[in-house]
Write a structure and sequence with these properties.
heterodimer, A: alpha/beta, Rossmann fold, 4-stranded antiparallel sheet, 10 helices, 10 strands, B: mainly alpha, ABC transporter involved in vitamin B12 uptake, BtuC, two-stranded antiparallel ribbon, disordered C terminus
Amino acid sequence: MTLKVERLVVEHGAIRALDGISFEVDAGSLAAVIGSNGAGKTTLLRTISGLKDAKLGKIFWKDREITGMKPEDLVRRGLAHVSEGKSVIPELTVRENLSLGGIWRNNKSELEESIGEVINLFPRLGERMDQRADTLSGGERQMLAIGRALASKPELLLLDEPSLGLAPLVVEQIFETISQLCRQQGITIILVEQNAMGALAIADTGIIINLGVIVAQGDAGSLVADPALKSAYLGY
Amino acid sequence: MQQLINTLLIGVSIGSIYALMALALVLVWRSTRVVNFAQAGQAILSTYIAWEVVNRSGSFLMAFILAVAIGGLIGGLVESGLMRVLLKHANEGPVAAVAPVIATLGLLAVIRAVVGLIWTNEGKRFESPVSTAGFVIGDATLPFSRLNLLIIVTAAVVMIIFSIIFQKTNLGLALRAAAYNPEIARLSGVRVATTRTIGWIFAGAAGAVAGILVSPNDSLTPNSLDTLLVFGFVAAVIGGLESLIGAVVGGLVLGVGLSFVLIYLGTSLIFPTTFVVLVLILLLKPAGLFGAKGARSA
């Protein structure tokens, strides 16, 4: 088991955002976390990556407890988080954003190698290396955000709504790349999405969250096939 | 024509010092969002140390290097020993904005008092390491001296060093990323708390250079850098408070502008002009010349 979350409780002031969530994600698999706005999906990712403190519960990563660890230390343990809203630094160039992803390793040749791999995956970024990130289109920015995370050579990738605000064709490309990262490179991925159909179509497992609790989890195909879940949570 | 060139050169010389002080203020603002009034205090302490070393050793270079290093150390200590603790406890509501500013004002008073206790409030003469007599071209003696040239060259070297650090090194990238977006920086593995301390160390060193450059041939007192702090702030605001290039341009624009006011209009108009420039910038371009979109220049 790669990632294990046990009875996780997270609060925003008086509001309980996550109320005793437990799940496991296998190594090299893709788990989709589905839910409406305010369900607690973003909070879940932010707690796993150390940006938010848990009130109760534990998180294990490769059999070691990581609850309460800082994001900057978790990156060094192979965890990368692409937060909501195309998480790039607009004032920096594409190259600088990618370099930032691998900055903690402090090894120039390794960094160049991982940037090369990102460019192979997203050739359009290679054509815009010296452009500021705020000159990129929405889709390119999302590619850059994922590219920044990949430059850290992660084993676990947390993706928060990568399809948000993108054109359908671009969403398709992004989902295809995410699937490729899991299948070909063996990266364990937790994909948080409101686009339930798109996410579950590429995922191995699905976790459906509503108001801070898990209402269903299991094989992605069986979740999609469940008519009750379909009408109540999957929005189609 | 000759007077015009002289005025320009003197303006660049004094503007370089304003630029260094502005740089110090911008570095602190970018790393911790604190307006650091204590910068004048930190710089005066470093300058007195330089004065002491010059008097004891006779070596300006040694005094300069030591005082700049100590200036950086003071900056680091102020951040890690005072500001970090303060920002941790006063991090919400109106107090979060006011407490650090009040703390830096208090620290300025404390440092001045300590400097006064050690070296007295009596003015000290800081000997210039080079001639302050103007260059002679033909029959004419220019107001522009070797000291002015030394100021420009030193400030330029400091700015080039900062530019290389910020644009070409991982440390610079980490400092910029942490300033623009601490969350993404942390998610990328940058230790943001450490970069904040480094920002204050650089600021302390830049402020010390400004203090040492402005003091030769002048009377050194615990309050003698207050004016420089004011001009540094105005230069930083002109540049947009966020941009290091902006701070340098702001300092040079202010220095050259005030040099023209001084030569062509008189000393009494220096402060009113500075105030008018500040108000105009705040009214017409509140983000400064390099604010908002231009803030990339780091």
